[in-house]
Amino acid sequence: MTIGICATSVEMLALLSFFRPLHYHFVVYLDLNEGFLGDKTYDDSFLALQKAVDFLSDKCDKIIVPPVYEFGFSSSEKILPLFQSYLKEYCFGQSIVWKLGFLAEYADVEQIENHINHFSKNFSLTTAQKNTKKFHFPWALWIKKVPLRKYFSLHLWNQNPSVVKLIKNDLKYFKDASIDTLIPLNYSFFLYQKTISSYFATSKKYKFHDSKVLVSLLQSLLPSSEKNSQLTIYYSGNLQPILDQKKRMRILSRWNTVTVNRKKI
Predict the structure, then answer these.
(1) pLDDT digit string (tens) for 33-78?
(2) Residue 248 in contact with residue 231, Cβ under 8 Å?
(3) pLDDT per position as a tens digit, 179-214
(4) Summary mean pLDDT of the chain
(5) pLDDT for the residue 245
(6) Are 27 and 60 in contact (CB under 8 A)?
(7) How many CB atoms within 10 Å of residue 105?
(8) Residue 178 region, left (φ>0) first, then alpha (ψ -120 to 50), else beta?
(9) CB within 8 Å of 154: residues ≥ 6 apart
(10) 61 CB burial (10 A radius; 0-12, 13-18, 19+)
(11) Exposed, middle or buried, 147 (CB in 10 Å: 0-12/13-18/19+)?
């Protein structure tokens, strides 16, 4: 089973670190000249991802794209509904009162409310949710823009004391709002799951579903028939900054087979 990944460098490395134990062949599209999608407008980022999806379509069985953009590709059979499954089965399905908090980048904020509103219309409430008097329907939503998170991941240790302090300061916004479910809108945000989980661990009313859920969902959506893990990277731009960092090289070195192709993409 061949799975494509269309994402920026930080998000790509996050997904590879989560999925490394699984026996799949991952094919990565990495256009380093595009910069970070979250810093662009939603439309510009979507066009960049469309180019990536077109490039990988004949090379992969399914393709993973960043969470918010998955909704925009919902009509494509090639796109793996990983984030939509994460929302439906865990975030929506296990939410106590549907007070949802989103960690987002600039481009995510433009469309997330429309996408969530449309997506939630097809969700059937559980018996427990129907019997909860304080349940918010369709939902109550809080969004926190955290555009600097990706730069932390590039240059700093995830448990760096300064980074942990900044993350906890961001999370205070959601605790003050009394949300019951926190949802990252970028897969690289899961790199800070240890800090997020420990921050909300003081109360059972807060829910955060970590990267183990993503791994479980991938296995259920696409059963693997591979005997080992394989990784193929197609890239343009300068890959050297990634290769120079030991943490990222450790992620890439753990695969059974790694192929790197420089392409004009």
Answers:
(1) 777 787 888 999 999 899 999 999 999 999 999 999 999 998 899 9
(2) no
(3) 889 999 999 999 999 999 998 887 777 889 999 999
(4) 85
(5) 66
(6) yes
(7) 24
(8) left
(9) 9, 10
(10) middle
(11) middle
Cα 156 to chain center, whole Å?
Answer: 19
> Two tokens at 228?
């080992």
Helices 193-200 and 161-176 meet at what angle, rounded to 10? 50
Residue-level length of the chain? 265
pLDDT band of 243, cuts 50, 70, 90: low
In this predicted model, what pLDDT tens digit does every residue of 128-159 receive, in sequence order?
Answer: 777 877 766 667 789 999 987 877 777 777 78
Q: Which two tokens stand for residue 70?
A: 């998955």
Would you give the end-to-end CA distance of the chain in angstroms?
Answer: 24
Residue with tokens 């090289």: 249
- Rounded to whole angstroms, what are the CA distances from 245 to 20, 101, 155, 188, 258? 18, 32, 9, 17, 17
CA 97 to chain centre: 23
Closest by CA to 170, choosing from 142, 206, 136, 134, is 142
> Could you tell me which residues come within 8 angstroms of residue 78 by beta carbon, excluding any fewer than 6 positions away?
53, 57, 60, 62, 63
